[in-house]
Design brief:
Length: 158
Amino acid sequence: MTSASTPGVRACTTGGGRPAFVVNVEVFLRRDDRWLLIRRGAREAHAPGVLAGVGGKVEIEGAGVDVLEETARREVMEEIGVDITEIGLTYVESTFFVTDDGDPVINVTFSGRMPDQARPVPAAVLEVAETVWLTLAEAEADPDCPPWTLRMLRRMTS
């Protein structure tokens, strides 16, 4: 079944018939003029091998107050082993997209400063192939940096 307003998108609904979406949170962390990006794992169902911010889905366990910010902090710890509990997160934007396998997603993006002592590493090796530090110009020159990641970097750098 597809949505009448977005061709090719499966209509996902709740038991009550209301629209349902995956809620994803993405975090872009900065140190000086460089942004930390991850290279998504080759076996990821959506956008394998491309550069992105750190992120993942909101989960039922732990959902409550500040669920988006808490999801951001959890995902950063799970994916790159960095504790950003004390780091302020700034809301950047929310967008809608459809995954490569057809799931409708609401993506909420935050930015923040990477803690000085933090040394990010791929902690979830199936999801994160590597971590890289890039300036906006370096990201623009990288063929694995998709348009949506570049849009975010440009927005946060301007």
